[in-house]
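YM 10:42: YcgR protein sequence, as discussed on the call
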Amino acid sequence: MFNALNAEDAPQPPKVLTTPLEIASTLRMLQDSHDPLIITFHERSQRFQSYLVDVSRDSKTLVLDEMIPRDGERYLENGEPFRIEGFHDGVRVAWESNGTLSLSEKDGHRIYSGNMPNEVVYHQRRNAFRAALKLAQLVNIELGGEKLKAPVNGKLLDISATGCKLRFEGDISGRLQLGQVYDRFVAALPFGSMTTAVELRYLHFEDKINITFAGVRFHNMSGLVQRQVERFVYQLQREARRFDKDDDF
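YM 10:58: structure's back
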């Protein structure tokens, strides 16, 4: 039942973008949406987060924001090759870099400048439809396990077949580590709690509203949990489509 989605919701094969126009417009999409980027250096397990702050099709260049944690800069300075990966509404965008990014400062912030990639992988994964929850229906979640001294409680903001976005009151960014797998993530779904391990892919504290936002990817999900997630996403999709239909009148 829950996999009986339209054919357009099926996963699409990845495309390799090679023209400057395609590449620049795709990177600008990540920049305009302020989508977080995950940087991984070859043969190193640690992950780093950054953002695109500028893309120029004319000069075929790009600029990245300061890496978090910042100690990844030494790998850049060593010229180590790395991969950059971002996600936008179920689309995975990834490219390889040969490590030739120059470090500088702009308005007191560290930035990294370099050439646009020659190839970008663009993977439209429709089965990773991300369903947002209405504010009145936010689901309670708990993040815990061996990697945390004490569990942290928050709210589920949206969910897809592969992960979800979370909200926590206050600044908990110092308690969490980007790229870390937390073995106990519990979400109180309407039809029963689900428990699985998750990998932290995004972390940002917004001091103006005193809220920490986090993005996690489900890790080694069991078949039962996968069916729970699919059921919940399907339910939210159905509600969203009904809401959109009502809006037409």
